[in-house]
Amino acid sequence: MSQARLMDGTALARRIVEETGERAAVLTERTGTAPCLATVLVGEDPASVTYVRMKQNRCRTAGITSRHVALPAATTTAELVGTIEALSADPGVHGILLQHPVGEHIDERAAFEAIAPGKDVDGVTFASFATMSFGLPGFVSCTPGGIMRLLAAYGVDPAGKRAVVVGRSAILGKPVGMLLLARDATVTYCHSRTRDLSAAVREADIVVAAVGRPRLIRGQDIKPGAVVIDAGYNAGNVGDVDFGSAVERASLITPVPGGVGPMTIATLLEQTVEAAARQLGVTEG
Fold first, then answer.
1. In 10 A of CB 44, how many CB atoms?
2. In angstroms, rounded to a whole number, what is the distance separating the alpha carbons of residues 134 and 92?
3. Residue 150: φ, ψ to 5°
4. Phi and psi for 20 in degrees, rounded to 5?
């Protein structure tokens, strides 16, 4: 069997950001208001600082105004919730991104729930999870949403396929499973308590690795011809899939980096412009 075809998230994300920039320019011209994304960062974790800076740079590329709120590491839950509630009430802000993690002393869920659903462009609230689960209008979690766009771009129809999601986080594993289910896939969630993970993976037509353990998924466990989505990112630019062996058995596979990661930011920007259009009462098209 020939090597898997790489799913180029970088190229697809670039096209999405370009299209988003065009939509942002039209919206700004029609309303006199540029879409605005507020980013909130607690503390100075180097990785988080880098991620936020990257998102701000992408905002500029797409014609989106970026407002950054930097809070000290000692910020309390109440203070963070108050900050987010103020942004939710601010008509000049159309989308809110709380960079996580926020520190163990903070109730992260309470902070997420302070984001107004209409501004939850990162798809992290209970309301967003509900709309994803029920197929209602709303905002998807950005990484799962990016994964679904990748599948569509490469002609992968989940309907009738067995999909195995390895990981059950609230912003990645659980929502991507619901989005696959909504597309008529038969979804199995696997996690740290799963018995015989290899056996479950071997049955999968689509594998989504989202557990944060380097090279957990081995090539020998990949069903020949399966589609492999590696949403893991570990030290040393290593994913959750052993790429070297998996690429010999899969039909399509995402590289790390350059696969899922760029799609996450592209989805965030796209949803920010959509949120701005809704709040400004503009019907696109």
1. 10
2. 30
3. -60, -45
4. -65, -40
Fold match flag (32-117 vs 142-261): yes
Question: For this structure, is 90 an active site residue?
Answer: no
| Residue 285 pLDDT | 55
Q: Is 55 annotated as catalytic?
A: yes
Instruction: Tell the residue number behind the tokens 């967003």, with chain if given.
Output: 128
From 99, 120, 230, 240, active-site residue: 99
* Residue 215: strand, helix, or coil: coil
Average pLDDT of each block of 10 consecutive residues along the chain (285 residues)? 91 97 97 98 92 93 96 97 98 96 94 98 97 93 98 98 97 97 97 95 98 96 98 92 97 97 96 98 78
Task: Supply φ then ψ for residue 122, to 5 degrees.
Answer: -95, -5
CA dist 262 to 15, 146, 257, Å? 11, 8, 9
- Told to judge if 99 belongs to the known catalytic residues of this protein, a careful annotator would answer yes
CATH class (in words) of the domain with range 142-261: alpha beta
The pLDDT value given to residue 2: 78
Tell me phi and psi for residue 229, to 5 degrees. Answer: -110, 115
Interatomic CA distance for residues 211 and 192, integer angstroms? 9
32-117 classified as CATH 3.40.350.10: no
Going from the C-alpha of 192 to that of each of 110, 196, 209, 219, the distances in angstroms are: 26, 10, 13, 19
Residue 40 is encoded by which pair of tokens? Answer: 């909130």
Catalytic hit among 119, 120, 122, 221: 122
Query: How much is the pLDDT for 284?
Result: 66
